[in-house]
Structure prediction request, 239 residues.
Amino acid sequence: MEVFGREIPEAEGPASLDSSRESGKGLLLIVTCPRCFSFDDVLPPRRLPDGRLKYTCTGEHDDTGAYMWSTASSAVEAPAGRTTTGPKPAAQTAGTPRTSLLAEDAAVDELLEPLLACVNVGEPFVEYGVVEYRFRISRPDLFVAYVREGGHVMLGARRGSASTSTARFVKALRRLERSGELVTVKGPGTGAWRHDQSIGYWARPPRPTGPFLTWSMFCATQGRTAEWTDDDRALLDTS
Prediction:
């Protein structure tokens, strides 16, 4: 792995989960740096195209500068015997490994800021399709990584049901709503999203009034069709 022109060996073993804490955005996983054993300077992870999570610690490390490493998302584990005085987590789903639940939380955590940036201050409620479109334009690497793992309706997911990737994007938006950073209402899907007649419309607080900005209306302002195009599918080609 290259760090400022030097090769750094990839960290071995699972990422060290120093602790977990509750915030308005839900459970935050705090990962420690395997070089300096501190979490203070560890930046939020970025998902690589192969699904691994890439971390960067911006600490000094004996004047050698930042240290980067990557790990499989499933390797993020809670330390044995760790207790917390905070609220108890939701009951584990029967048959779902604890590591899978932690990996899901980590996956949603990395989506929070990128998706929040796709809902503009001062806009009316915008249809989910607008938010997703902005996300795949601004972060195609992250978007394609999730589609490769969970599929997408434009690639053939059964109409009327969300793909795993879309479900994760919506889960992140709902967490932002719970933290007070977004507000939402339900409305009819339009254009390529018309199969969902109870889709989310999202906005920044305070709660806006007036007409919604639908996917079809947004597409008209962009000079594109509201249906899926070959260019859309080409970006998401996972072959």
